[in-house]
Amino acid sequence: MGLAFDLPAQLVTATGPRTLQLALARRFWQRFRGLMLAPPLQVQPCPQALLLTDCASVHGCFMRYPLDIVFLARPDAYGLYRVTSTACLPRWGMRLGQHWCDPVNGQQLRAAHVLELPAGTVAHWGVQAGDRLSVACAKTDNLQELWL
After folding, report:
1. What is the spatial distance between Cα 86 and Cα 72, in angstroms, rounded to a whole number?
2. Which residues of 21-58 are buried (b: 16+ CB within 10 A; e: fewer)?
3. Residue 83 to residues 30, 56, 65, 137, 146: CA-CA distances in angstroms?
4. Total-model pTM
5. pLDDT tens digits for 55-75?
6. How many angstroms separate the CA atoms of 29 and 48, rounded?
7. Neighbour tally for 143: CB within 10 Å
């Protein structure tokens, strides 16, 4: 059974809002399988992304294409998710989320979730550690409700 990219979402970074079609991987086996043996993520007309919740590392085993990875911290008081690090994931590669220290208040943020995007997206959108991402889903105003 394939992934359903049926959750409209908007990702807001310093460079502006980006519309995505999300698939969620909430359970262990969904996260483990991820995009293994799946066709490449679509870029047009609306980029697809896989959101792996409660996950701080990813692998590219059995992958047929590279991915861009955005590691996200748990949401702050405003419901915004801070980027702790980004990475390129080659086929058969592995990446671990990195800690990020906020230079303003010295707070250490740990990677808690992973957003997998088509290769080249992070550079094209200018996503970097410290960016605040807001995912506004059409099905609910609170993304946390989707993860329960």
Report:
1. 9
2. bbbbbeeeebbeebbeebeebeeeeebbbbbbbebbeb
3. 22, 12, 23, 18, 20
4. 0.86
5. 999 999 899 999 999 999 998
6. 20
7. 22
3-state secondary structure of 33: helix
pLDDT digits over 35-53, tens only? 888 889 999 888 999 999 8
Q: Which two tokens stand for residue 55?
A: 């996950």
CB 53 within 8 A of CB 24: yes
What residue type is assigned to position 21 of the chain?
Q
Residue 82 in tokens: 């801070």
Long-range contacts of 123-130 (CB under 8 A, 24+ apart): 123/68, 125/13, 125/15, 125/18, 126/13, 126/14, 126/15, 127/13, 127/70, 127/83, 127/86, 128/83, 128/86, 129/83, 129/84, 129/85, 129/86, 129/98, 129/100, 130/82, 130/83, 130/100, 130/102, 130/103
Give the chain's domains with CATH numbers: 7-146 (2.60.120.1140)
What are the tokens at 108? 């250490």
